[in-house]
Amino acid sequence: MAPNLTTMQPAETIGMLADYHFPPYITLAHMFHAPQGWAIRNREMTQFILQYVVDGFAHYPVEDIPYETRRGDLLFHRPNERHSIIKEDHSPYVCISLVFHFGTSAFPYEELFKHKHQLGNFADHPVETMLSQLVSHYRQPGLVHQMHCQSLLMRILAEAAQAFETGTTRAKTDALTMPKLVLIKNYLTEHYSREIQIRELEDVSGLSKNYILTLFRQHVGMSPMQYLTWIRINKAKELAIHSSLSFSEIADRVGYSDVHTFGRMFKKKTGQSLTQFCSNLIYS
User: Fold this and answer.
1) Which of 10, 31, 60, 78 is the most buried (most CB within 10 A)?
2) Which are the contacts of 7, defined by CB distance < 8 A and separation ≥ 6?
3) 250 falls in which pLDDT band (50, 70, 90)?
4) Where are the beta strands (DSSP E) in the chain?
5) The whole model's pTM is what?
């Protein structure tokens, strides 16, 4: 039986990670669908943890600080920080868990994240795709896949740190722009199953096309149509997890009449097929 690397001291794991020759050392990367009654209480790990909510809701106290986590939330906690994960019976909980360490190298987590555990919400953000890609590479053996894992982990940490750093600088402008942005995002979310034209977003918000594009690039990191694609991708993931629909039925539900076009789009944006996404999902 293979040892559980996540419960070991960092130095003890290095000799068992054959394809790792330098930090960061990743000892776990998986997507987990929590069954009914599942919970973790008062656990302490000797390594760093990133926990991303793919779907659902859970209470996630860290060192007696209560957090409520929903889809898109990314949590980070340090070695030996006591934490619990408690899902509610009526709500699903699907998460991506990354457990990692840097060996004897110092990692400047306080400089990057201060004392924060909740790093922000990354639903429909490139970080979400990077996390899925990391899990996919982690499941495949060999040095090249491990290097992809390490590269993706560092990019995720960098993106999270940048979002954390810039979040406070936008507070004043958010008060003026966020209502319009939320209005457009809600419209896209409500009508994702059909073709949407940019002029519809102008009519809904009262803003010009150029201003809408600028607003999305500044606050979302992509164009409205790219955001619509991310909505469709995540709706497809939800349907794959929670329904028995075929891939062609899922494609039709999220606005694609041709399953092959949908398949190419999904793989281009996520780095994996919908079949691979489903195969990466662990239920127990």
Assistant:
1) 60
2) 45, 46
3) very high
4) 25-33, 39-43, 48-59, 68-70, 73-77, 83-87, 93-101, 118-121, 281-282
5) 0.72
Going by C-alpha positions, the residue among 97, 98, 85 that lies closest to residue 41 is 85
More confident call, 281 vs 207: 207
Q: Domain 5-168 is classified in which CATH homologous superfamily?
A: Regulatory protein AraC (2.60.120.280)
Which of 156, 151, 154, 141 is closest to 17 using CA atoms? 141
| Run of H or E including 200 | helix 198-205
Cβ atoms of 180 and 215 closer than 8 Å: yes
pLDDT range class, residue 46, cuts 50, 70, 90: very high
- Between the alpha carbon of residue 22 and those of residues 4, 78, 101, 155, the distances in Å are 20, 20, 11, 16
Chain-centroid distance, C-alpha 4: 24
Domain boundaries, the chain: 5-168, 170-282
Q: Is 114 helix (H, G, I), strand (E, B) or coil?
A: coil
> For the segment 136-181, what is each residue's pLDDT rounded down to a tens digit?
999 898 999 999 999 999 999 999 998 877 654 444 445 557 788 8
- Contact indicator for 260, 11 with CB cutoff of 8 Å: no
List 52's β-bridge partners, or say none: 74, 96
pLDDT surpassing 60 at residue 248: yes
The CATH number that domain 170-282 falls under is 1.10.10.60
Smallest Cα–Cα separation from 102: which of 153, 159, 178? 153
CA distances from 38 to 87, 93, 241 (A): 7, 10, 17
Any idea which residue has 């076009």 for tokens?
261
Q: What is the overall mean pLDDT for the chain?
A: 88
As a whole number of angstroms, the distance between CA 203 and CA 209 comes to 10
